[in-house]
Amino acid sequence: MSIEFLLTSLVVVLLPGTGVIYTLAIGLGRGFRASIAAAFGCTMGIVPAALASIVGLAAIFHTSAVAFTLIKYAGAVYLLYMAWSILRDKSALTVNAEREPVSLGRVAVSGMLLNILNPKLSLFFLAFLPQFVSIESANATALMLGHALVFMAITFVGFIGYGACAALARDYVIARPRVVSWLKRGFAGIFGFLGLRLALTDT
Questions:
Q1: Which domain does 93 fall in, by range?
Q2: How many domains are contained in the chain?
Q3: Which residues 6+ apart lie within 8 Å of 3 measured at CB?
């Protein structure tokens, strides 16, 4: 496995996206333990896209307007739902010393759906993996699977790092309620923007 692949994967993982934003929001609002669940969910959400690209299904999304459009709008609706949920749920980003119980499974499932309902993730893997694996190789499929697993591992570790940073900022935020209010609006706005952008994109 090349150093170029590892460095490229690290850069891609660290770039702010829906998964990063979600993990930061959970880490800040629920703490480090919940952020690990968020990181795990977002990482597992990569599995369908990686498998789809490996078996060639991502190419169908690229050539079939109907398939891409259906998944695209499903993802856009879910992102908008996340924005609405943050604004509606008064405990979603409530930062206080007394943490309310939270279902880690629910946190993980929400993170997983964010990536599963993003059709561009499949297209990303379709373009990304073949750059580091020769199609002429006898075990090209196994090599791409191995690269996908390493990418997922880097994603999980990177997202845990983001969650840890957010959790460490809790004490600062606890003493500043107005910061929580603006962060809540900010996270909701980001999810709303990403949902609209996904819905309006043509490719």
A1: 16-200
A2: 1
A3: none
